Amino acid sequence: KSFLNHTAYLSCYFPNSQKTDIKDLRVFWQKGDMEVVHEVYYGQEKHDNLSPKYINRTRMDMDKWTLQLLNAGIVDEGQYRCIIQHRDKGSAKVIHTSECLLHIIANYSQPEIAWLHTGELKPSKYLNLTCSSSGGYPEPKQMTWLISHENKTSRLTHHMDVSQDAVTKLYNVTSKLNITVPTNTRTNISCLLHLGGQLGSLVSVPLGI
């Protein structure tokens, strides 16, 4: 995983147990079947075969056998393959391959609750709220409303509207809540954005009524 516009680190997982000199190795990275991302040709960086979008965006740490991909973007997501060939008696043979899958993460804004309401709140009338969060990636799982009063909290999961920016590929999400105005008891309403996987959740500032 790498944050958007940060450096992604992709490892070859090559133990080099034979302590082979890099001058006897050809190391190249591919994305998918076609794109050459980086090439070290018997100890020298080689740029002739690189896909244009990777030129001046990669560095290879030969001590750790790790590729650094600078300014990682959403278009860089995908499967990468590291292939190492050893030059032996004039011919090159593959001695190691490994793959890694790159996922890009962009932080969502803190969810924010807004009123779709003007005028005075009256008991037993309906209260319309929205909760929104923007500028994140990947697409989140769901949005949950938390309604707390008298030491009880209820959870409501409503439909979440999702839009994706055509250029940046970042997501904006919104959920609506329509409930009756609570009477006599103070009520706190929050919304929770579930990002999925190990990314956790984001919670809004509570709205007190």
Notable features of this structure?
five-stranded antiparallel beta sheet; single chain; 209 residues; 0% helix; mainly beta; elongated; Immunoglobulin-like; 2 domains
Brief synopsis:
With 209 residues, this protein is mainly β. It contains no helices and 19 strands. It is found in: Cell membrane.
Structure commentary:
With 209 residues, the protein is an all-beta fold. It folds into 2 domains: 104 residues, Immunoglobulin-like (Sandwich); 100 residues, Immunoglobulins (Immunoglobulin-like), CATH 2.60.40.10. It is 0% helix and 53% strand. The chain is built from no helices and 19 strands. A 5-stranded antiparallel β-sheet has the order 5-4-3-8-9, with no helix packed on it. Strands 13, 14, 17, 18 and 19 form a 5-stranded antiparallel β-sheet that branches. A 4-stranded antiparallel β-sheet has the order 11-12-16-15, with no helix packed on it.
End-to-end CA span: 40 Å
Any idea what the CATH superfamily of the largest domain is called? Immunoglobulins
CATH architecture of the largest domain: Sandwich
Helix proportion range: under 10%
Instruction: Please state the overall shape, judged from the principal axes of the Cα atoms.
Output: elongated
Number of strands: 19
Strand order of the largest sheet: 5-4-3-8-9
CATH class of the largest domain: Mainly Beta
Structural class: mainly beta
Q: Could you describe the largest sheet, including whether it forms a barrel?
A: 5 strands, antiparallel
CATH topology of the largest domain: Immunoglobulin-like
| Total individual domains | 2
Share of residues in strands: over 45%
Output the helix-strand order: EEEEEEEEEEEEEEEEEEE
Uncertain regions: pLDDT < 50 for 5+ in a row? none
The helix count comes to 0
The chain-level mean pLDDT equals 88
What is the alpha-carbon Rg in Å? 26 Å
